[in-house]
Design a protein that fits this description.
Layout lengths: L1 H17 L10 H12 L3 E4 L1 H5 L17 E8 L5 E9 L9 H16 L6 E5 L1 H7 L7 H16 L1 E10 L4 E7 L2 E5 L15 E5 L1 H10 L2 E6 H6 L2 H13 L5 E5 H7 L7 H17 L5 E8 L6 E7 L11 H5 L4 H12 L5 H29 L5 H15 L10
Antiparallel strand pairs: 1-9, 2-3, 3-5, 4-8, 5-6, 7-8, 10-12, 11-12
């Protein structure tokens, strides 16, 4: 009876894997090689708006013991009638491995780049083999420990959960939304023999959660302004800070924040305030030394009103927005009609559909989704009196970044 029960579970899993008619067929060796070339030469890296600001990883080199309590983070959003509302995020760790660290951050970055590179289609990110993932960051001869760490990091990404109170104000349903969700669901590895890690077959994939799929379809991912090779050269906290600043510099030329609040967002886990400032200063100095494109300067000062330390970051330029270069990815772009519908919905001004069509034709999916992401982020932070005008301004800014021009007189 036990064997029959196990077989039944296997049958269910096999049906889940292979019954979906939209599932890509197993790639040939030539297709795998072509995909690797396309993905490793992908342009500007991209990331998620919320994950850029909410803490998810810890960067302690030798923690005394895995953290079991959730990471808690609060900020303020704009709610009904423009009223400020406290939003709270809690990230619950993996039961087996706790929170992720520097390598987990890299795996999430790589998976997002792969998903974007594959057109954000469906609920699977095809990574092929674990060796492919390790090779992306320059590990050519991985050890057994590298493979074990990578499997652990993927397990963390599949099992950490987000609980968000007052995630956002749903204008359509006129309600506040609480959410419990995760980034990824199941992961599948394929191998030719039952025991050897060296017998991987290039069919591995990880399932994207419905929430992350919705983010990809509706909001898209914002541009970081630098490619993956640059990201890999940064230290872990520099990577996290660069993602955070890329988001902020899309709409701010000067970003200022209390050090204690910024330390929670990155996060910096040092207990002494002077150590927190020193760690933050070193991370900012590292970005400047390595010439991150959008950061011109950094300073620490005390607020004369509150008496708290403030971190100030000066923008050199807006993070560059770029379309995907390969013909295959261009063909995966959303049709213009869908982009027009998105712009009409988020602006609340469907009567301006001719203008939205012009923007969609000029900017394409990458530009429109970048603009919508910035627009929705602005609406979260403050009340927008004229959504159509604000969205138009952002669209024009994105067009300028892409070296294009759109104007009302061009309708």
């Amino acid at each position: 009876m036990r064997n029959k029960g196990l077989q039944s579970i296997a049958d269910i899993l096999q049906q889940t894997l292979f019954s979906d008619s939209s599932k890509p067929s197993a790639p040939t060796e030539l297709q795998v090689q072509k995909q690797a070339i396309t993905l490793t030469t992908a342009p500007t890296g991209r990331y998620d708006f919320d994950l850029a600001e909410f803490p998810f990883f810890h960067f302690d080199k030798n923690p005394a013991q895995p953290l079991k309590d959730p990471i808690t983070y609060t900020d303020t959003i704009t709610g009904k009638d423009g009223q400020p509302v406290i939003r709270q995020w809690k990230v619950y760790p993996s039961a087996a491995y706790g929170f992720g660290g520097p390598t987990t951050q890299l795996v999430l970055y790589d998976l997002l780049q792969l998903y974007i590179g594959q057109g954000c289609k469906g609920n699977q990110i095809q990574f092929g083999t674990l060796y492919n993932l390790l090779q992306r960051r320059g590990i050519r001869s991985p050890s057994t420990r590298d493979y074990q760490r990578l499997r652990r990091d993927i397990e963390i990404l599949c099992s950490c959960r987000f609980h968000c109170k007052n995630a956002f104000w749903d204008r359509e349903r006129q309600s506040y939304v609480d959410m419990n969700w995760q980034l990824f669901n199941s992961v599948f590895y394929f191998k030719a023999t039952p025991d050897s890690l060296q017998s991987e077959m290039p069919f591995g994939f990880i399932e994207v959660s419905s929430v992350l799929q919705q983010i990809a379809r509706t909001r898209g991912f914002f541009t970081l302004g630098f490619p993956a090779p640059f990201f890999y050269k940064l230290k872990p906290l520099e990577q996290r800070l660069s993602i955070y600043l890329a988001k902020k510099f899309m709409s701010q030329s000067l970003h200022q924040r209390f050090v204690e609040d910024l330390a929670k967002a990155l996060p910096i886990d040092a207990k002494r305030p002077d150590n927190v400032r020193a760690i933050l200063k070193n991370a900012a100095a590292g970005l400047i030394e390595k010439q991150v494109p959008f950061l011109a300067g950094f300073e620490l000062r005390k607020s004369s009103r509150e008496g708290k330390w403030v971190a100030a970051f000066h923008r050199r330029c807006v993070p560059a927005v770029s379309s995907y270069p390969t013909e295959e990815l261009k063909n995966l772009s959303m049709p213009t009609s869908q982009l027009v519908q998105r712009l009409s919905e988020v602006s609340g001004q469907p009567e301006d559909w001719r203008w939205w069509r012009k923007c969609a034709e000029q900017l394409g999916s990458a530009g429109v989704e970048s603009a919508i992401g910035q627009f929705e982020e602005t609406c979260r932070l403050r009340r927008v009196e004229n959504p159509g005008a604000m969205l138009t301004k952002i669209l024009k800014d994105v067009a300028t970044q892409m070296g294009r021009s759109i104007g009302k007189n061009a309708i």
